[in-house]
Amino acid sequence: MYILFAFVLIVCNNSKVLGQDYLVGPGDVLSITVYDNDDLKTKVRVSSNGTIVMPLLGQVNVNKLSISAITEKLTHLLASGYIVNPQVNVFVDEFRSKKVVILGNVRNPGLIELNGPTTFLELVSKAGGFDKDAGDTATIKRKVDGKDDVIVINLVSLVKGGDMNQNVQINDEDTIYIASAGMCYVTGEVGKPGTYPCGEGATVLKLIALAQGFNGKAAKSSINIVRMIDNQKKVLEKVSLDTPVKHNDVIVVPESFF
Question: pTM (2 decimals)?
Answer without folding.
Answer: 0.64
